[in-house]
Amino acid sequence: MNPNPARPPLLTPRFLFIAGSLAVLLALTLSPATRARLGVFDRGQWFLDAHSVLGANDAERKVVGANASGHDQMLLEGHHYSDWWFGLRLLGLTQRDAFLVGGGWVLLFLLAVFATVKPGSRAEALWLVLLTGSPPVLLGVIRANSDLLIFAVLAVAVLALRFVSGRRLVLAFAAVALATGLKFYPVAAGLVFLQVPGVRRMLRATGWAAGLLGAVVASLSTQLHRGIFHVEPEIYTLGGRIWLMDLGLAEQPAILVSLVLLAAAAGVAAWRGWTTGLARAEDDLGGRVAMTLGAALLVFCFLGTINFGYRWVFALWLAPWLWSHRRGSPAARAAVWLLPLILWHDGFLCLATNLWFPHLRQEQYDHILVAWRLVTEPFVWLVMILLAGWLLDLVLVCGREACAVLFPARR
What we know:
Largest sheet: 2 strands, antiparallel
Number of helices: 16
Shape: globular
Radius of gyration: 22 Å
Mean pLDDT: 90
Low-confidence stretches: none
């Protein structure tokens, strides 16, 4: 008799994660009333963001063909991404294909999640279901936001860098460059090449990545302004300046203050040794790669502008590394507890107000929302400080190793 029988397939952590995530997302997607109580709306249009991208493609086609209308110009002016998206018209896709395209983005996103996020225990699997089925992720799925496609593209880099070789590096370069060309902010993903094993190889990889991403950004210099647009702080928004604006600062000073505060706090965390462990350890290269990529994207977006909440999809790449280090790192343990709170707290507010105070006037709701942010945004700040601290420690360790190789001490 086998004293250690194989675990039944239906009880494996990976199955629980996949089945649980799909069940929660499907149940919420097919229940508009529940979504409305959570504050997640589709505005009467399935896959709204895919619809908008394809609408801009149709408008650009008409502009090129000199048959543009005022409506077409408005669609182009509302296009917040690069011209690379206009390549969709080469595939013959139009706004009529929005459901097909949006559904494809959602499917690619889910495949990327399940390929790159693999729980090691049932407890971790259930914790991950809380993250994957959270309202910000649901918002991205309902709208088929382009962040889902960016996630899928960058997942190629996550998978490629788990075992580094020349061909895999090229694949990772291409994925990060394509994501940057499509939506600008993934330029921050270039930090992931600091995780390439071997100091000399790491230096070559980061050098090539810097040159390639610099060339992509330079080629899009006249389009970068599209990615900077005003988003009013509301439910399911992300940005360092939000809390400071609620405290009374004007938006422009809040931008600078948020940068200084985060940099200072991350510096203290790294100096005190609270955020070590991400830098060039010998084990779990895949986990460190995903953690570095997710942290870099979230911190960059947090400081850059006010984002819609679906940017939190990249938090899924933080989860496995944080969970595996929670016992030895108080910072990782804190992040493990805080992530579900952060991804669900706005949903709880919407649920509570919809169930208990359904007849609030808009100004009353606005006052409650500001008070809610004053209480909850510090938790978001704490997570961002820890992420920035881990990234700073990674940069410092890699910098010291590089200096030791490039400028060896004379004997």
